Sequence to fold (93 residues):
Amino acid sequence: MKVEENLYYAELFDIYRGLLTKLQQQALESFLDENLTLSEIAENEGVSRQAVKDSIDKALSKLASLEEKVGFHKRLKALEGEIEKLKNKTGED
Fold:
C-alpha cells in the first residue's frame, strides 16, 4: 500500500473505527497504526495470513464504502482547506 493510501485509510479508520467489528479494528490497528506485516499479525493472532488479509481487505472496503455514503472525511478536508486559506489571508501561522 502506498504511503498516501495508507494515510488516507488511517484517517478513515480514525473517523469510522467504531463501525467496524472488533476483529477488523484489531487487524487494522496492527496494520495501519503499528505497521505490522500480514504475517506478523497472523502470528500474533494465531490465525492464517489469508484470514488477516481477508479481514483487512473487508475492513478497508467498508471504510471506503462508509466514506462514499457519509463523506465526513471529504468535508473535513474541505474545512481544513478553508481554515488554511483564512490563516493565509490573515497572516497567521
The two ends are 33 Å apart (CA to CA). The CA atoms of residues 24 and 59 lie 6 Å apart.
